[in-house]
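In this supplementary section we document a worked example of the pipeline. Step one takes a protein sequence of length 78 as its only input; no multiple sequence alignment statistics are reported here. Step two produces a three-dimensional model, which step three serialises into structure tokens for compact storage. The input and output of this example are shown verbatim.
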Amino acid sequence: MDIDAGSPVAPLRLAEHGAGTAVLSASSAQGTRLRAVPLTDAATHARLGLITRHDQRSPAVRLLRAKLLTALQPPGTP
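The serialised model returned by step three reads:
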């Protein structure tokens, strides 16, 4: 069974109670009874989402959105 969670708390608590394993960052296990084991034979990928309201008129939000989109462009993208 796979569990996708918006927060690491649910899979972390399940793993703490012996109901399986959790694939999380090592820092998530700090302060728990769990032991972090590095994954050394798997490629890791991260996903970052940016969600804004279409009708947002705030200059600060527009500026932040523009700067984030520029900063997150893949290398070599004009």
